[in-house]
Amino acid sequence: MNWSWLLPDGKGIPVLMYHKVWPGVSDGLTITPEKLREQWQFLRQEGYEALSLSEYLDIATGQAPYKGKPVLLTFDDGYRNNLTYAYPLLKEFGWKATFFIIANTLSETTAKEESEIEQKMSLAELRQLDQDVVQLALHGYAHENMSKISLEQSCEALRSSLQAFEKSKLPFHKVLAYPYGARPDAHFGELKKMMAEMGINAGFRIGNKVSQVPAPDLFEIKRIDIKGTDTLHDFAIKLKKGKLKPF
Prior knowledge:
The chain has helices spanning 33-45, 53-60, 80-93, 123-128, 151-168, 188-198, 232-241; strands at 15-18, 20-21, 30-31, 49-51, 70-76, 97-101, 134-138, 173-177, 202-207, 221-225. It is α/β, with parallel strands linked by helices. Helix 1 (33-45) packs parallel to helix 3 (80-93) and helix 5 packs parallel to helix 6 (188-198). The longest helix has 18 residues, at 151-168. The relative contact order is 0.19.
């Protein structure tokens, strides 16, 4: 039985985290195009509207009012299959999304993955994206786990990320989705200070909760991990509570 309708709406904006989109594959990081469409049809039926990253941040910083039922759609890593399957669906729905890009892929000198499902968008493909549909932001330089490297290494990765984006001439937002959702425990305060000095003005983790707005900490914005194995019932619960054990 579907009990999700009994759950109160979470106070804030659901920020949904996706990765790969691929036919016939449903796992922790991959959703089928059919299931993605089903989820977005559900969102539309429930009255949700997808925000751009700019619109979300205006609300998160208190510069714009919270109204209606907004949602932020995010895709990590810059997989080519996002261009093939998610991007046309965004245009069909008239919706917006954020793609968090691993910056060393912009040089196009990194080794090409053997598996087609793992391939990343090229610089030329990223330039094809309509800025009114997809906004780009940071996901580390080489997908560094910032909970396992030093403050200096994290800062160098972020500086390299910014340089790679600036060299590419792609429009992007100085906003980070922490690779693996990982932030350091020991020097997180120092990292946040360094990020602010670099002009990086927000950071997205996982957290699996509806993001509070205005955000109490712009470097700790929570996202909801949407898995390809989630049923529509699971999705409905996560949308309101962020996780599958709501009670």
